Amino acid sequence: MAIRLTYLVFILFVLVLVYGCGSKEINPLEDDRGIFSFYGALDMDRPVNFIRVRDLRIPLLAEQTIGENTIVEFEDIEQGSLTILQDSIVQINDHTIHNYVLNQALRPRQPYRITARRGDGAQSESIATTPGITVTSAVPDENVICRQRITFQFDNVLPTEQIRAEAGFEYENEMRWFEITRFCEFNRDVIENRITLEVSPIDLLGLIFPPRNVNILTCPGTPSTVSCNELSSNIAQLRFYHLGPEWQRVFPVIQVNPENVMDVENGLGFFGAYRQDVITYSLSVD
């Protein structure tokens, strides 16, 4: 099964580069700032998740990036259960990456703690809170005319949580995806815990298939070089990601001060949770 590389994975990759790459020697500033680094985005809908852990005393490109006698624990804070995670070693260009395996179902809106502890007792920890169950709708969702506006609604999204979305259309027998959150206006109702997006298919197509001379994309406003009639299928999708509060440090929003969001204690990196799903709608193609 092909692995779908989403923009969230790209964001995590960027975080790894920002915090981890550079010289093969130990960075004394990095070493002073923490014990371990964590890089993990827990997908609530996956039976297995992986969390990368690295001992900051050890150079990034060393053969081993975890010291002996290191213990990595995953705690369900509300239930008080503790699981010792097993290491899954990945070799990349003769270098070892330690991805710890989490085989555990995650419950909505629950805090989970990861702790890495060295043999000398020094440790780092971080808490990720899962988002709630997203209630979605799209009106209309059948036989939508290309310039007709659709209201996508996401309910049960707390002010500390976020929705990121990608639009997908099949063109030349290939699904084309584009991250639209930066360009389209998502309206938030903090009283109803609701986020809405009103947009037409042609507006979304303009982001995916803009004219070559367009340097700045807008939604709506960017014309599309591909019409709904030229698509390979009349089935379109909006893939969304419901992010937990820790993602505020990646995608800050006005409602929450990122300083109030849990970071890695005595360490570096990112540890958060999300869930993803797809809203499907059909187009009217004459």
3D structure, described in words:
By secondary structure, this protein is mainly beta. It has two domains: 7-129, Immunoglobulins (Immunoglobulin-like); 135-282. It has three helices and 16 strands. It has helices spanning 7-20, 28-33, 201-208; strands spanning 36-43, 49-55, 71-76, 81-84, 86-92, 95-102, 111-117, 123-129, 135-139, 150-155, 162-171, 174-179, 186-189, 194-199, 235-243, 267-282. A hairpin with a 2-residue loop joins strand 11 (162-171) and strand 12. The radius of gyration is 21 Å and the shape is elongated. The two termini are 35 Å apart. The model is unreliable at 1-7, 12-32 and 254-261 (pLDDT under 50).
Itemize the secondary structure elements and their pairings.
Elements: H1 7-20, H2 28-33, E1 36-43, E2 49-55, E3 71-76, E4 81-84, E5 86-92, E6 95-102, E7 111-117, E8 123-129, E9 135-139, E10 150-155, E11 162-171, E12 174-179, E13 186-189, E14 194-199, H3 201-208, E15 235-243, E16 267-282
Helix content: under 10%
Mean pLDDT metric: 85
Q: In angstroms, what separates the terminal alpha carbons?
A: 35 Å
Report the C-alpha radius of gyration, rounded.
Answer: 21 Å
Quote the beta fraction. Answer: 35-45%
Major beta sheet, strand line-up: 5-6-2-1-16-15-11-12
Question: Helices and strands: which structural class?
Answer: mainly beta
- How many helices does DSSP assign? 3
Q: How many structural domains in the coordinates?
A: 2
The largest pleated sheet is described as: 8 strands, mixed
User: Element order, helices and strands?
Assistant: HHEEEEEEEEEEEEEEHEE
Shape: elongated
Poorly predicted runs are 1-7, 12-32, 254-261
Instruction: Give the number of DSSP strands.
Output: 16
